[in-house]
Amino acid sequence: MSEPKISGLNHLTLAVGELERSIGFYCDLLGFTLRARWADGAYLEAGALWLCLSCDKDARTSPHPDYSHVAFDVAPEAFDALSERVRRVARIWKENRSEGPSLYFLDPDGHRLELHVGSLASRLAHFRANPAPGLHVIDA
């Protein structure tokens, strides 16, 4: 019998300062679907992603100080239009320097987010085609 291991991401919870504002940002701007709601939280869905918004009056509204961020998958044909909508209302925190189209932006509570076109397979293919010193791609 093999060792128990994690099989994937179950859900992501973000602390938010104003629930209504955050539901609007994620649903109206990014296209999530509201699936459940209660006094201090909500469950949203985008494809296989289950996102929980949990109201925390102490949630910060400034960017988090490190590179940690959440990247959302976007179809290539939808990237330009969605990026334009996001650029009109959200602050950009980083310019794209990776392979494939990406937009790095902040949500109303300062969470670092990314819209990205690509997959782990496309990233590894890019690394194989453009090897960098010290980078090793490990094939399964």
UniProtKB/TrEMBL annotation:
Keywords: Transferase. SUPFAM superfamilies: Glyoxalase/Bleomycin resistance protein/Dihydroxybiphenyl dioxygenase. PROSITE patterns: VOC. InterPro entries: Glyas_Bleomycin-R_OHBP_Dase, Glyas_Fos-R_dOase_dom, GlyoxalaseI/FosfomycinResist, VOC_core. Residues 8-118 form the VOC domain. The keyword Transferase applies. Coiled coil: none annotated. The keyword Zinc does not apply. GO terms for molecular function: transferase activity. Signal peptide: none annotated. Pfam families: Glyoxalase. This is Glutathione transferase. It comes from Sphingomonas oleivorans. The lineage of its organism: Bacteria, Pseudomonadati, Pseudomonadota, Alphaproteobacteria, Sphingomonadales.
